[in-house]
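Quick question, first post here. What does this chain look like in 3D?
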Amino acid sequence: PTTGGALAFDGFVPPYESTLSTNLREAGAVILAKTVMTELANFTAAGMPGNYSAVGGYGLNPYDPRRDPREGRDDGRPVMGVGGSSSGIGTAMSFWAGNVGTETSGSILSPSNANMLVGIKPTVGRVSRWGVIPITADQDIAGPMARTVTDAAIMFGAMEGAEPDPNDDSTTRCERPANGDYTAFLQADALQGARIGIPRAMYYDSVQVPGTDNFRGGLGDEARAVMDEAIQILQAQGATIVDPADIPSVVEPDPETSLLTNGGSSVLSYGMKRDFNAWLATLGDDAPVSTLTELREWNEAHRNRGSLKYDQARLDGSDAIDLEAARAEYEEDRARDLLLNGERGIDAAMVEHELDALLFPRSAGAGIAARPGYPTVIVPFARVGVSEEAAASFPEGFEPRPAPYGVSFTGGACSEPALIGLAFAFEQATMRRVAPEGFR
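> Answer (accepted):
Ran it through. C-alpha cells below.
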C-alpha cells in the first residue's frame, strides 16, 4: 500500500508503480516493505512528532527506544528524535540493506543523522518523482539511506535509472555517470587537494539577525568539539579547509536582502495544493479521495478513528489558497528562495572560495540546499549528549542517552559525484558508525 501515513489511504494500492521502484527492481533490488513515515511528509499538522502517522503510530529511535516521559510530551512519542519525514529505523537495525527516503527540506538528511546512516539527498531532477506523494515539485526528491557510502551509492545509481523519465521533466537536469555507476567515485584519496568550506555564520556560530537584537544558530560546546575534530580529520586527509566560508546571504547586513529575515515563503503551501491534487488525479476511481479538500473532509469525519491526533493545520492552510490569485506571490517567493539560497547563497560561497563542498553540522544545511534543489551527502560520525537545560527537564532518575551526530557535504546542482567521493574518503578515514545495541 501507498498511504503516506494518512488513514484515508490505509490499504490503498495505486494503479501504477513509481518510476524509482521500477528502476530498483530492474536493477535487481528486492523491495521488502514500506516504512513508517511522518504523515504526508510532515505536511499534515504543525507540531506532529517526527515519524508519527495515523496509520503507523510512533517510530522509536533504536539508539534510545524509550518513550518521552516528560509532561506534555508523554503522548507516546520517542524520547530521542528519529528525524523525519522519512524513516531510517529499519536500516539502522539491519533489517534490510537500505531504504528510500524523500525530502522536501531535511526529510532524508534528518532521519539519516538521527539513525546514524549515510543519506544522499540528490539534486532535484536526479531521481524521478513519478508516483511519489508530493509536497511541491519545486523541492521534492527521493534518495537512498544506507549504512555505508558504498551501499548508498549503489542504490542511488539504480534509483536514478539509465534514462530521463518522460513523466518527470526535471530528470533531464543532470548528466548521468557512465553506466549509472556512482561507485566509480568511491576513492579513498578523494579528499586530497579538495577545498572544503566552513560556513561559520549561523551554522557553527550564532549570528545577529539584521535589524533586530536577536541571534540565531550556533553550536553547543560538545557539538562544536565534534565538528572541530571532523575538520582536523579532513585536513589530515589532505583537504584544504577554507574557514570561514560564510554564506553571503546569511551575513548580509541589509534586512531587505538577508536570508535570516526572508525565511518565510508560500512555496510549500502553494505547491502542496497544486501538486497533491495533481497526484490524486493520477490514481483513478478507486482512490479514497480525489482532492485535498476531500481528504480534509474525510479526516474530520473519521476523527474518532485517530485521523487527526495533531489536527491538520498545514493541510487546511494549503487548501485555503486560491492558486490563481496567489500565483504572483508564489512566483515572487520562489524567485527569492532561489536567489538567497542558491545564487547569493550556496553558489556564491562555492564560487568565491573555489570550493568542492561546504561542510555542515548534522543536517543543519538542509534548508538552504533544499530551496534551490542542491545535493547533500551525510555521513555518521559521533554521538552528542543533550544540553544541561534539556537534561534538567527529565524526571529524576531518567538519563537521556547521547544522540547520533553526522557531518554533511553540500555542493551545487549535479555535484553528487564529487560529494560521494568526499563522503566516502571521510567515512573510510573515520569509520565511526556504531550499530544500535542488540543489532550489531
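The first strand starts at residue 52 and ends at 53.
The radius of gyration is 21 Å.
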